[in-house]
């Protein structure tokens, strides 16, 4: 995303309508010909910011392959603001933050004979289907399928890692209590230990359609899909196996 591209190449239909409306207001109104020739009004700055953010957000979502819908709200400027008329195309750049989500500031600049810069604040909301709780949950509890569901939320201001699939949460251990309808993020979760050192486990060795099972003993703790050390109680050999379920591990043949 190149936030410094001249905005004149990025005119949206809304922005075009705004410019046409402003042109009609200033140039067809005989009572205010001097205003159109001498100043740039706040409505034009807001229109430039709105169009620039529409393009920038769509570009960001396409580049990052992020699904979702967005809403842009440009803050009102002081209606008394009067900037000198710009004899060149206005340019818009994203001043902060690095990505066009949450609270943002757009720098609108004139590089003409009477240069000026105006900083326009705005807010970009990005709505996605994310994992939330369906009921209050206790600390140290293991999340079950009934505990979570997908709901649409504004993730524009979420700094922690949100989850977009309930499978990412199911089977995880909560490190803090949660209330109903609360957004689940990575800071709430830790890998639940489904096998502990000393547990008796069933070792499965798969090769195609062949599946051999033998008794084993876990030599370390582990969560789902983690690899742990296991002793084969038949051969007394120590091997590494992946946990597939409580009391179940698997090795590749």
From TrEMBL:
The organism's place on the tree of life at top rank: Bacteria
Predominant location category: periplasm
A GO CC term attached to the entry: periplasmic space
GO biological process: bacterial-type flagellum assembly
Record domain SAF: where: 128-190
PANTHER family reported for this sequence: FLAGELLA BASAL BODY P-RING FORMATION PROTEIN FLGA
Family: Belongs to the FlgA family.
Record's protein name: Flagella basal body P-ring formation protein FlgA
Lineage: Bacteria, Pseudomonadati, Pseudomonadota, Gammaproteobacteria, Pseudomonadales
Gene name, Swiss-Prot/TrEMBL: flgA
């Amino acid at each position: 995303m190149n936030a410094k591209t001249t905005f004149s190449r990025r005119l949206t239909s809304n922005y075009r309508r705004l410019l046409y409306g402003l042109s009609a207001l200033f140039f067809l109104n005989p009572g205010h010909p001097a205003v159109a020739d001498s100043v740039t009004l706040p409505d034009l700055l807001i229109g430039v910011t709105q169009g620039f953010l529409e393009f920038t957000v769509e570009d960001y979502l396409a580049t990052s392959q992020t699904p979702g819908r967005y809403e842009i709200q440009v803050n009102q400027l002081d209606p008394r603001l009067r900037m000198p008329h710009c004899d060149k195309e206005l340019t818009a750049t994203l001043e902060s933050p690095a990505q066009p989500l949450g609270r943002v500031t757009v720098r609108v600049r004139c590089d003409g004979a009477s240069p000026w810069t105006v900083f326009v604040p705005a807010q970009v909301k990005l709505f996605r289907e994310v994992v939330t709780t369906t009921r209050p949950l206790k600390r140290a509890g293991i999340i079950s399928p009934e505990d979570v569901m997908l709901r649409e939320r504004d993730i524009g201001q979420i700094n922690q890692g949100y989850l977009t699939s309930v499978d990412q949460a199911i089977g995880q251990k909560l490190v803090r209590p949660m209330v109903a309808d609360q957004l689940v993020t990575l800071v709430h979760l830790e890998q639940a230990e489904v096998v502990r050192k000393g547990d008796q486990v069933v070792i499965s060795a798969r090769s195609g359609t062949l599946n051999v099972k033998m008794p084993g003993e876990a030599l370390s703790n582990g969560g789902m899909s983690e690899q742990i050390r296991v002793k084969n109680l038949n051969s007394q050999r120590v091997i590494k196996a992946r946990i597939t379920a409580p009391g179940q591990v698997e090795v590749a043949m």
